[in-house]
Fold this protein.
Amino acid sequence: MAKPDNETYAQLVTKHEHFGIVLNPEILQLYKQVNDSLPDLIVQAIDGQLKREYRYALGGQVVAGLALVLMAGGFVSLVMNGHERSAYALLGAGALNIIGGFLRARLSDGVGNLTERIHNRTKMNECARP
């Protein structure tokens, strides 16, 4: 097999920037020019990453569901024992915690906080301008 030239590497880097979960066949072909086993390894790596992300998300939902059940159980128990103020405080704190967790999950991508994301996106937009 002939060694790929610099143009092949340049195409690979340029096209690699614009892919999502499903790789473009042209990108896989360029990887194959570099090494025959690379396309299979890349597809396996992406598949493994998606499985890990799914398990992590599912685990988070299970833990959140358990926390919600425990919070509701604690609320009912406190009300039944005549501690209404404490019960409402528990319910309010739990509800605020759930809302805050939801917002953090929706506004972050695992890389950084929302401020960093906005800064990075602004920086990318400035670089893309002619």
